[in-house]
Structures are given as structure tokens and as C-alpha cells.
Write a structure and sequence with these properties.
Layout lengths: L12 E8 L4 E7 L5 E4 L2 H24 L6 H27 L22 H7 L4 H29 L1
Antiparallel strand pairs: 1-2, 2-3
Helix pairs in contact: 1-2, 1-4
The chain binds zinc ion (ZN).
Amino acid sequence: MIRRCAECAQPTLLPISRRMQVYSSVIRYKCSNCAAEVDITPMASIGVFTMVGILALSFWGWIVFGGSGAPGYLALSLFGGAGIVFFLVIFSYLAKHFLNPLTSTGGQGHLPEVSDDDHIARKPILFVERLGYFSGMLIPLAVITGILGISALIGYINFTFF
Ligand SMILES: [Zn+2]
């Protein structure tokens, strides 16, 4: 996983460590040419964040705009502000990928191992992070579908047998 350094434009940006954060891991890269350091979030996790944000904003928008009458100024401002913050956060995650692109041969190889392993959701997060951005976007939908399916099944069993 070798990247081109955004600071000195040399293909010398190497992963040196990987840590768990709350909802993803983050990979610390260090340039062996100019010593610049950058933290990069795996694409799949950015995809997950994107979809979770879209779902949350959709639900919020449905509440704001779905009610009777015109939405109030405060509700609109909060909604618009959250949308802008969401866009900026996702953009800042993605920008690090585009500013420090993988070199032509650097795409091969696995993500580095995680040093700390006491994270409660370590395994599912690391599994998801092997995927790409758009596969990551599908994960929240798959989880929601799974939860709804299990709920429906429990309801069906409850209704049918008890
Ligand atoms: Zn550099």
C-alpha cells in the first residue's frame, strides 16, 4: 500500500501503523522522503459513513419536510447545517485518498495489521474494510435489512405460534 506523498509528490508514502477508532480503523502513513505524516481512513469505512449519513439525513429530512405546513426557519437551518457538516467530513476523508493516491504498484498487498486489539467491533470493522467504497455503502443497508428481517421473523413466529 504505497502512496504518492501530497507534500513532496514522491511515491514514498508508506503505512507505518493502523489503529482502531470508534467506527473504523485509521492508517498512519509516513513519507520516507520528506517525513510528512497523514492519517487515512479505509475507503470502505468512508462508504459506510456516507450511507449512514445519507440515511440519517433522509430520515431527518422526512421529519422536517413531511409534516403539515412549511418547516420552520430553525428546523431548516439545523437540517442545512448538518448537511453541510456531513458533506465536509466525508469530503475531508476522501480528499486524503485523492491527495495521496496509491502508486500504480502500490494497490497490491493487504492493509497493515492493527496494533491494538481490544476494540469490541474489531472483527466486523476489519472485515468491512477489505471492501471498496461502494461495497461499504451497502453494509448499512444490509445490516438494516437483516434487523428488519429478524424482527419480521420474530413477529411472525410470535403471531403464528403463541
Ligand atoms: Zn513526502
